Amino acid sequence: MAATLHDVANLAGVSFKTVSNVVNGHPHVRPSTRERVERAIAELGYKPNLSARSLRSGRTGAIALAVPELNLSYFAELASFVIAAAEQAGLVTLVEQTGGDRDRELALLKSPRLRMTDGLILSPLGMGQEDADALDVAFPLVLLGERTFDWPNDHVTMSNLNAAHAATEYLIASGRRRIAVIGENEDEVMGSARLRLRGYREALEAHGIPYDERLVARATLWHRADGARAMHDLLDRGADFDAVFGFNDTLALGAMRVLQEAGLRVPEDVAVLGFDDLDEAAYAIPSLTTVDPGREWIARTAVETLLERIGRKGKDLAPRTKLADFTIIERESAPKD
Amino acid sequence: MAATLHDVANLAGVSFKTVSNVVNGHPHVRPSTRERVERAIAELGYKPNLSARSLRSGRTGAIALAVPELNLSYFAELASFVIAAAEQAGLVTLVEQTGGDRDRELALLKSPRLRMTDGLILSPLGMGQEDADALDVAFPLVLLGERTFDWPNDHVTMSNLNAAHAATEYLIASGRRRIAVIGENEDEVMGSARLRLRGYREALEAHGIPYDERLVARATLWHRADGARAMHDLLDRGADFDAVFGFNDTLALGAMRVLQEAGLRVPEDVAVLGFDDLDEAAYAIPSLTTVDPGREWIARTAVETLLERIGRKGKDLAPRTKLADFTIIERESAPKD
DNA sequence: CCGATGGTTTGCATCGTTGTAAGATCGTCA
DNA sequence: TGACGATCTTACAACGATGCAAACCATCGG
Fold it and tell me: Which helix (H) or strand (E) holds B153?
């Protein structure tokens, strides 16, 4: 059995409360006592029982991060940053996968598993306005992704609309006029897909380019395979385009692969622009021009925001929205001109 | 404040222990009582306090997974499978990143943070024979990666040596004779890098091809950037090769990118073979021939093995090694002939 | 030499749950 | 009707830690 405060106390010849004081860095402990206790701790290899500690203190020292899937590189890289940021704050991170499924997202919010943590960072995909009540929870919660619904929570994100607008404008500025998009998803009531589509449309409009539905390809989950499938759709229906804007990098990469299989040259025949700036994007062939959404900032800020909620005054704060800056990274698949 | 057993008991007009019995599906509870209690539970939105439960029961319902980085796609995909397998067993997963750093791996094994979990799945990278003692821990521990040291733990892996041997042979069978490798790392005393190098050498030897140090490029961490750097090294030093075996897919992809930048055609001038079968590999241009190490099997088996250790008889089991089957997936970057 | 002072140590109650054992209730049978 | 199991419910003691308040003990000034 693992050693307890009592065991250490017996060995050191003090009361177990004194050991607790040493462990917690209580100010008034005589140096000689402290040293004796510390020796006993080392000898027994004592480690505090975190269940007991959190039962007593009400804090667990863990946060939960819920993303659709770690298989999606964007979320893997995001999770990596979140875990690192949490660790810096002395917290461990419990990772859940929702599959982007509304029911699983809702179930998670009600799950007793969350009682194991001090708060949740959730990247919702399936939920909509009708789920606002489910999001009005008693524990600290920070949402990743834009505040498009009237949800009572903190949000950390970048402006999907502005970024998509800028990306589209970038393609227009480079001389492209028939710009296809991949990733539209009408099931998603108002998430990134919808916002990015809106940004795309507004940019077209601002430049007097008509919106053409035949250039819009849908994709529900954003894997490479979905991007490939969408590009096949576009090609099969004989769509005529000189650029593709993928709503994320994996879609764009899947599409780029199909383009080249079809004998089209990137960027000569078709420029390709992605969204996320995955590590992979820089090493694709050709390398992928993409939107850098400030992933690391988002991760760090999400953890900070959650910590504020967890803190003493967390309950009193009004819901906040924090926006990251985005940048367009120029690479080979869509040169500036 | 969240509701407790007491609150529910008051509302339902029973003792708090009866509520506990209902929650735990205790057999002898009158249906009418059960129903009354369940209504009270629903009304108050009662959720058991997991800290208290695990203090009492000694089980936390969580496992820890420690990998070098989630940024590395292999580990992201692995983590995804581990989390899913754990969830099926009703466990949540806490993810730690070690950076492949020996000190952080050792620190993790001693960390009180682990008391929050029932066991650990660790993918060690920096540790060696001298750390055997540190691995002789009191909690359930399963290691990912091959048992090359005399470590007192369960191992789940595939045969790095056989897989690398087969991969090299595949290239030889396709007519290549000057096969470079990327990923050698002499710091790593006896991990995957060393084993894969050994497999490579043995395959060469079996076919009477001399081992040529100038064809061996090192890389410590296995990011795309490291693969790119290694390939630059090879090209800069004028190495003469007609194939490259990357010790993982990201290395291979980074290298492939540099090859094509240098005007070399893949696979005509240089065949490229990777290791891991990332989702990405199928969509690279050209698509990447690679070794599928049975990642999902490894993840599932690691969780199962850990559960056996956690179980009643876990302490009595001798250390086991479980080997996954690997397959070579033929794609464009290295056709069979 | 005593009480005040302030640092140092301790005892007790408590967090919310579960296991054990004992108590209450009920129907059944002699 | 009363005793007796069987079924249902309850009381109590942990699990290991922390917070509070009280107790202890030097040291110092008067």
Answer: none
How far, in Å, is the CA of B48 from the C1' of nucleotide C22? 26
Whether A80 contacts chain B with CB within 8 A: yes
Q: What is the pLDDT along chain B (337 residues), one digit of tens a residue?
A: 688 999 999 898 888 888 999 898 887 888 888 898 999 999 999 999 999 999 999 899 999 999 999 999 999 999 999 999 999 999 999 999 999 899 999 999 999 888 899 999 999 988 888 899 999 998 999 999 877 788 889 999 999 999 999 999 999 999 999 999 999 987 766 578 889 999 999 999 999 999 999 999 999 888 999 999 999 999 999 999 999 999 999 999 999 999 998 999 999 999 999 999 999 999 888 999 999 999 999 999 999 999 999 986 667 788 999 999 999 999 999 999 8
pTM, two decimal places = 0.92
- Long-range CB contacts (within 8 A, 24+) of B296-300: B296/B81, B297/B324, B297/B325, B298/B78, B298/B81, B298/B144, B298/B156, B298/B157, B298/B158, B298/B324, B299/B78, B299/B81, B299/B82, B299/B84, B299/B85, B300/B81, B300/B85
State, as a whole number of angstroms, the distance between the CA of B112 and the C1' of C7.
31
| Strand D positions closer than 7 A to protein CB | 7-12, 14-20
Does B115 sit within 8 Å of A285, measured CB to CB?
A: no
Whether the beta carbon of A48 falls within 7 A of nucleic chain D: the reply is yes
Q: Which residues of B touch A55 (CB under 8 A)?
A: 49, 51-52, 55
What chain B holds in terms of domains, given with CATH numbers, is 5-48 (1.10.260.40), 60-158+294-326 (3.40.50.2300), 160-292 (3.40.50.2300)
Question: Do A141 and A153 contact (CB within 8 A), yes or no?
Answer: yes
